[in-house]
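Render this sequence as a predicted structure.
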Amino acid sequence: MAIQELLVKNLKVSFLTPEKELLAIRGISYELNRDETLAVVGESGCGKTVSALSILRLLEEPPGKIVSGEIFFDGKDLLKMSKKELQTYRGKDIAMIFQDPMTSMNPVLTIGEQIIETLLRHTSCSRKEAMNKTLKLLDQVEIPSPKEKLDQYPHQLSGGMRQRAMIAMALSCDPRILIADEPTTALDVLTQGQILYLLKKIKKETKMSILLITHDVGVVAEMARRVMVMYAGEIVESGPVREIFSSPRHPYTIGLMKSLPTLESTEEKFLKLNEMPGIVPSLSKIPSGCSFHPRCPSAETRCKIEKPIFKKIAEEYSVRCWLY
């Protein structure tokens, strides 16, 4: 039986605007099991990053605001902790790789100093021990010449090297959960492959759980066992990767899968792209009923009026659609 590492229940997050308060995350619930990689996918603007930042309460408040919900880790609700208490978990038990390492790392501190600072804050090791562990971490994430890179600043490293340094910092205190927000964004294809290989290798060695936020379905296939599909601040489909990839149920997931490039076998092979019409709605213009109905080829009158429930249709499989 799977051991639950993190439990999110009915999380709602809003943003304050000059006009009114807009709900960005609209009551999502899920669990992350020990030694599991759970992927969160969806188009830009669907709420993936906001939901992940809410776990460690890293949203800027205001304009961000966690309206309601519970996030349990080790039997404690992270949302009810004081900032001081929560800081003992941030970076130690739950770590995060941010989307852009260049803006997430301190530009005036060396790579080594930033990792050493994390170790000194969360562990009882001496500065010398922290220095030695930092060198081992840089070597673990396969940064060449770690002694040399120790004294370099973020701007002196390539995008791939900065991402590796960010991973080293996240892993420095042996976290039980790693939140990886678009860890391969803006990297070339070769470097993307190296970063994914590195994450898989480290996960196998440490048995940590990974919450992987991405818009790249190929990354999901490579990394995850389960996947959650988000749309307009809600989870619309959730289940094992193989099942969702082979027979997706929700029309939005079907559209995502069809929009992937495929190699057509004709006299001359070419890439065919199927476009999904429309865009993710603005927070101020979320449609009534099912939020996907304006883009859905299967929408009926009921879909425009009634909001579908998130219904379990099989073991580990749930979908938010009136078709089921």
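Summary. The chain has a mean pLDDT of 89. The domain at 1-93+175-263 is CATH 3.40.50.300 (Rossmann fold).
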